[in-house]
Amino acid sequence: MTTALPTGRGYAVALAEDGQPTPTLYLYDVIGVDLFGGIAARQVVDDLAALGPVEALDVRVNSPGGDVFEGIAVYNALRRLPARVTVHIDGIAASIASLIAMAGDETLIAENAMVMVHRPWTALMGDATELRRQAGTLDKAWSAMLATYARRTGRRPATFEQRVAQSGGEWWMTAEEAVSERFADAVQKPEKEAQVFGLHRFKRVPAKLAAAAADADPPERPTAPRVAEIEAPRVAAVPEVLPLATRRRIVEALDLAT
Question: 62: left (phi > 0), else alpha (psi -120 to 50), else beta?
């Protein structure tokens, strides 16, 4: 399979054509839009509507996650489709991207790909009342995610709570484990173009996966996310004066300094 993305990262919809009889949605970026790009749920919804009536849709996922509510909106858009949806986890489906992967009528995972589940995070400031309010929002978002995982797998939400807690807050699954835990239906051949990225935000990345992402991420210690997954701030686009990779490294360096 050759992706419709020149750099192997981003968002695209490839229409059905010779050699590719099924339209394909590529989610190869952060979920939700910030200063550095990402995938907007509104764009996904509009593009799915523009496809018109189709019998089947392939969705290829390689994402470290992002905004919880944007991800839930993408999940719901895929579930609403009358077409048969097949999700392919090509590299990583972490955080809210793991929930999007649950939208498939069938979910396939590459033998060298991984899935990661954790409680949602946010970054905020305010008084005690505001912090308690945001904590309640995080709990409700987690409950919504657990309900979706439970519906897909047929297991109790408490099971996932326990798995995440026992894993130190980040539950990483290999392809075989994802199938065993019912997050995927079968393992398929690896996708060479699906290089993982964005792992610096996580604290318990398996060593093998971290090594595979070395060329995509700067070699830095894991840090807490600086962009909230809940109620993430939205900023206006600015003219591009530096390459995207350079801007990402500047922000990550500033994060480490704080």
Answer: beta
- Domains of the chain in start order, with CATH, are 10-257 (3.90.226.10)
Q: pTM score, two decimals? A: 0.75
- 30 near 68, Cβ under 8 Å? no
Question: Reduced to 3 states, what is the DSSP secondary structure of residue 176?
Answer: helix
Q: For residue range 13-30, what is the model confidence (pLDDT) as tens digits?
A: 988 876 678 899 999 999
In the chain, the amino acid numbered 202 is: F
Closest Cα to residue 30, out of 52, 63, 4, 71? 63
> From CA 101, how far away is CA 123, in angstroms rounded?
25
- Closest alpha carbon to 66 in 95, 43, 40: 95
Full DSSP string of 25-71? EEEES-BEEETTEEE-HHHHHHHHHHH-S-SEEEEEEEE--B-HHHH
Helix 157-166 to helix 128-153 angle (10° resolution) is 110
Q: What is the pLDDT of residues 230-247, one digit of tens each?
A: 444 333 344 445 566 666
Give rounded-to-5 percent helix, strand, coil for the chain. Answer: 40, 20, 40
